[in-house]
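Q: Please design a sequence for this.
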């Protein structure tokens, strides 16, 4: 096995990890998933990640982490134990090995929970949630360590990632569309950045190949989309002409408050995610990799994801 093609991936069985693994394998990379419960010969337990494993690998892609909790029941310490402390441990092992590249999957939420203009890498981080704070703490630790010559560190800040197997807010929206429910948030004319799993996988592969300067990079599709556009697109895939209602924002907020305390299908945080502006710039990563645009447009990426939902419903 060629060391230059051997990639270690934590969180390889998750949504991002499984898609990325398949993409890298198609591009002739040998991947080894690092997981708590190995199920295949391509996976090992964290305890088996020894010096030999590190020294015979070209890169570590650290995807494992505790995801943002939409239900508000997670323990704050859990975020730091998984998102921060585990990252510290892995990075120290990386520094002591001959492995060349460390890619850490952070989040735009490590910087800001709301965006007024467009989020760039220069914005001063002010995360509000335990999830965002734990991701930022990991970033700060990584950047505080001296990186030996010949090693590369890439901290990626993706926005909302979607694709086959995704179980995020897009699924809730698709469930509404599938039932023919009118979209009630038409009064919100928002613009959001999204990230298809195909574009994310492409960027990670290019980082491994080109090895640009180490640093922090936002990752997103090129274009902004509104949630209303998403809903209409879902209707087209389903063959349904979905209605868009412009319910008064004050009524929407009241229903969101009910969902915070009662088992409603929607709550304040979900409404915010669906209706807020959250524009992210990907200029820096495209410049670093010398690419003019992402392989997949935002709209085509969304349609591909919606078709996967429709196929598997």
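A: Design:
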């Amino acid at each position: 096995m060629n060391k230059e093609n051997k990639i270690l991936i934590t969180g390889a069985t998750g949504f991002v990890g499984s898609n990325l693994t398949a993409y890298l394998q198609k591009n002739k990379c040998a991947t080894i998933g690092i997981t708590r419960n190995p199920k295949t010969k391509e996976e090992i337990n964290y305890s088996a990640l020894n010096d030999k494993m590190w020294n015979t690998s070209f890169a570590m892609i650290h995807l494992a982490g505790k995801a943002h909790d939409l239900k508000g029941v997670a323990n704050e310490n859990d975020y730091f134990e998984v998102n921060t402390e585990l990252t510290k441990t892995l990075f120290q092992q990386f520094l002591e090995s001959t492995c060349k590249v460390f890619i850490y999957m952070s989040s735009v939420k490590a910087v800001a929970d709301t965006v007024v203009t467009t989020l760039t890498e220069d914005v001063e981080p002010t995360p509000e949630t335990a999830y965002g704070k734990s991701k930022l703490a990991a970033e700060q630790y990584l950047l505080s360590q001296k990186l030996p010559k010949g090693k590369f560190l890439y901290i990626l800040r993706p926005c909302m990632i979607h694709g086959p197997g995704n179980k995020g807010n897009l699924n809730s929206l698709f469930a509404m569309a599938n039932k023919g429910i009118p979209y009630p948030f038409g009064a919100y004319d928002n613009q959001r950045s999204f990230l298809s799993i195909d574009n994310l996988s492409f960027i990670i592969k290019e980082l491994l190949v080109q090895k640009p300067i180490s640093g922090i990079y936002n990752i997103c599709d090129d274009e902004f989309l509104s949630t209303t556009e998403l809903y209409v697109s879902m209707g087209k895939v389903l063959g349904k002409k979905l209605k868009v209602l412009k319910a008064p924002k004050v009524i929407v907020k009241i229903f969101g408050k009910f969902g915070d305390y009662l088992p409603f299908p929607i709550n304040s945080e979900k409404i915010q995610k669906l209706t807020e502006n959250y524009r992210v710039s990907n200029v820096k990563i495209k410049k670093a990799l010398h690419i003019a645009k992402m392989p997949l447009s935002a709209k085509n990426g969304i349609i591909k994801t919606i078709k996967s939902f429709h196929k598997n419903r």
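Q: Thanks. Anything notable?
A: Residues 76-95 form the longest helix (20 residues). The CA atoms of residues 154 and 195 lie 18 Å apart.
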